[in-house]
Design brief:
Number of domains: 1
Strand content: under 5%
CATH superfamily: BH2638-like
Shape: globular
Strand order of the largest sheet: 1-2
Radius of gyration: 12 Å
Number of helices: 4
Order of helices and strands: HEHHHE
Protein name: UPF0223 protein YktA
Organism: Halobacillus faecis
Largest sheet: 2 strands, antiparallel
Length: 90
């Protein structure tokens, strides 16, 4: 990994930063080896608690995709279409 995660160190607490980084990590795992649907959705739910604004979500996830090549949107969309117990594999 030779890129940085888009985070807001000014407004987010240490715990919130960890939770957002965890969500980005889950998206990476979905692309690299697959991740449990429930784990990804739980991480996304927490991400949305920290980043409730759709425009801010698009900005952050766009920055993440630009840096990493991994799309939060596509990973979450696939997860939403899967059944409980399935793996998200991009």
């Amino acid at each position: 990994m030779s890129y940085t995660y888009p985070i807001d160190e000014i407004y987010w607490s240490k715990e919130e930063i960890i939770d957002v980084v965890n969500f980005y990590s889950m998206v990476e795992q979905a692309y690299e080896k697959g991740v449990d649907r429930e784990e990804l959705m739980l991480a996304y739910t927490r991400f949305k608690q920290i980043v409730p604004s759709k425009s801010e979500e698009k900005t952050l996830c766009g920055q993440f995709e630009k840096e990493s090549g991994y799309s939060c949107y596509k990973a979450v969309k696939q997860a939403k279409g899967l059944s409980k117990g399935d793996k998200v594999k991009m």
